What does this fold into?
Amino acid sequence: MTFKHCAFRFCFGPTALFLAAAALYAQPQLDIRAAHPGVEPARAADLKVNVDLVLLPVTVTNRYGKTVDGLTASSFTVLEDHDPKPIVSFGSEDVPCSVGVVVDLSGSMQSKTGIAAGAMSAFLDTANPEDEAFLLTVSTKPGQASTFTNDFGELRSQLRAVRPGGATALTDTIAQALGQLRSAHNPRRALLIISDGMDNHSRYSEAELLHIAE
It folds into this structure.
């Protein structure tokens, strides 16, 4: 669950951040006009912004999904429009993460519940004390097995207590999980979905789910 990433900073030209900077620059003018009605502020000087450093968070895993540690800046190449950019700063850190876990326990997963539970358990084994997770189960309707917690043993117990069966409201459960992620305590957030991918009982469409995700 822990996200280990390498932070790269490399030279970069003007980007859309110019718009954000321009918006911040314009705000004092609005304040001046509000504070002194009828007083026209002096004409603002032209503003030009160059973004010279960009932070790129990267997570590297091997073919088995394990995080790869010990990499250096020379292990990476950063390209912009096929043009190599220099990496001027490099570092790695262990970042706390908030994760929503969605496990499908509908009728179509009855023969696979052991595999699903094992997958969730293996994922939680990578957690550190600052990580948090909640558990939703998929059946005829979403099942709230656990809210955000650092007690991952409790998540395992809650999953064992749910009996598989019913229809599959997978899309509805994912939509509920996305909403619940908004109350996460960590800025880095992820959603883990363990399912055979079938859905036959959701109110939300795939298009509506994508809109919620966006």
